[in-house]
Amino acid sequence: MKTRIAWFLAGFVASWLARSAITCIQLRPRDYTQAWARVVPQESLHDAGLDWLRNARGVTIGKYRFFTPVNSSNASAQLQSLATDGLPGISIQDENGDGRLDSVLVVDSAHHNFSFTDRNGDGVLDSYEYTTGSDPGSKTFRDDDMDGQYELRVGPGRAMAVFVESQWRDVVDKGNEHFVELKGKLTRIEVHPVLRILDDK
Questions:
Q1: Region of 133 on the Ramachandran plot (φ > 0 left; ψ -120 to 50 alpha; else beta)
Q2: Do 118 and 100 form a contact (C-beta atoms < 8 A)?
Q3: In the beta sheet, which residues pair with residue 61?
Q4: Which of 39, 158, 165, 177 suits 63 as a labelling partner, its CA being 20 to 30 A distant?
């Protein structure tokens, strides 16, 4: 009887050590951008604030892989499908590494995406964008103040319109400036980071 108990305990300890070693190997930090190099340019990852994926931990949970930065002061995280295109997925970005989220991106398997942004770092999401897809005819809509009314529409292509005085108005580009017709006059506007009416011209 004692021999059986001893063998059982020895087997349990060996299994626990093996499992711990496997888990340690699976959770070790690695560069998760390498597998994307074929489809996503490295500069695009940088522009998207995904540099932290060069030194991140990842774990597979069901049909998804969950990534977190090794640096615990960075609040970024990513949930990615194991499907070929990585969708659906969720990306949480702490762009300046201050421990607070700056934006949340949710993309479904049909390439519809919602992006929520905290522009001033107060911990409150201030605006959101909705994109209808990734095809050339897709459109992006932006709500600058989370009131349920879109202020900006982009697409298809480079077409742009703003919602001013209760109706959509086409944006006219002149060089690096944007204008919209109000009361029969071209009025200069800003469209980034939020819509602003500047002056008449």
A1: left
A2: yes
A3: 64
A4: 39
Q: Is the pTM of this model over 0.90?
A: no
Q: What is the pLDDT of residues 25-41, one digit of tens each?
A: 455 566 666 655 444 55
pLDDT of residue 38: 47
CA 185 – CA 191 distance, rounded (Å): 18
Band (pLDDT 50/70/90 cuts) for residue 48 is low
Q: Where are the domains of the chain?
A: 1-29, 31-110, 126-201
CB 156 within 8 A of CB 147: no
Half-sphere exposure for 158 (CA within 13 Å, toward CB): 3
Q: Rounded CA gap, 136 and 146, in Å?
A: 27
Cis before 69? omega within 30:
no
For the chain, where are the alpha helices, taking DSSP H only?
Answer: 2-26, 42-47
Nearest to 158 by CA among 131, 181, 140, 184: 140
What are residue 104's DSSP bridge partners?
A: 92, 116
